[in-house]
Amino acid sequence: MAQGCLDKAETNFKKCLEYSPNNIVAHKNLALTLSKMKDYQNASKLYKKILSKQPYDITSINNMAHCAAALKRYNDAIKYCNIGLAIDPINSDLLINKGCCMYKIGDYKNALECLKEAEKRVKDDIVLLNNKALCYIAINEYDKALNIFDFILQKKRLDDIMINKGFCLFKKGLYKEALDIL
C-alpha cells in the first residue's frame, strides 16, 4: 500500500477513535495500519490495549508477536506466539513466527520443530523454508539446507535465497561454488 494511502488511513482511524474511543475495529485497523507503516512501537501499544479487551483474538496476538519480532524483542514475540498457540495449536502463522524468532535467539532445534509443524499445513512458504534451511546451516546439516534452497530457487529466483545458498556452500567448504553464486 502506498505511503499516502497509509497516512490517510491512519488519519481516518484516529478521527474515528476521537468520536468513538472504544471502537475495537478502529483500534485494530489503526494498529494494522501502523504496523504496515513500520511504526511497530505504537502498533504494539494498540495491540496491548486490544488484547486487554479481547485476550483470545488470534489475529491481534499474531500481529503483536510480529511487532515484537520486528522490534527484535524475540522472547516477547515467542511469548505471544505461545499464548496464541495455546488457543490455536495448529496456527501456521504463529508456528512460523515462533520458529523464526527461535532461530534468531539460537534455539535451532525448537525452531526446526515449529517450522516442520507449520510445514504440515502450509506448503512452499518461502519464509518458512528459508528459515528452516538457515536452521540446518546452524546445526551443520548443509545438504538439507542446500536441498531446500534448490527447491525454492526452482520456483522463484530470489537474491536473498541465492545469498543464503552461497553462505551454505561456503560453510560446507565449497568455496568455488559459493563464489560462483555470490
Summarize this structure briefly:
This protein has 182 residues and is an all-alpha fold. It has helices spanning 3-19, 24-36, 40-53, 58-70, 74-87, 92-104, 108-119, 126-138, 142-155, 159-172, 175-181.
For the largest beta-sheet, the strand count, sense and barrel status come to: none
Order of helices and strands: HHHHHHHHHHH
Report the end-to-end length measured between terminal Cα atoms.
Answer: 32 Å
Helix amount, in percent? over 70%
Unreliable parts: none
What's the tally of helices?
A: 11
Summing up helix and strand content along with how strands pair, one would put the structural category as mainly alpha
Average of the residue pLDDT scores:
91
Q: Radius of gyration from the CA trace?
A: 19 Å
| Counted beta strands | 0
The global form is elongated
**Portion in strands:** under 5%
Description:
The protein contains 11 helices and no strands. The protein is mainly alpha-helical and 182 residues long. The mean pLDDT is 91.
What's the structural blueprint in terms of helices and strands?
Layout lengths: L2 H17 L4 H13 L3 H14 L4 H13 L3 H14 L4 H13 L3 H12 L6 H13 L3 H14 L3 H14 L2 H7 L1
Helix pairs in contact: 1-2, 2-3, 3-4, 4-5, 4-6, 5-6, 6-7, 6-8, 7-8, 8-9, 9-10, 10-11
List keywords for this structure.
11 helices; 79% helix; 182 residues; mainly alpha
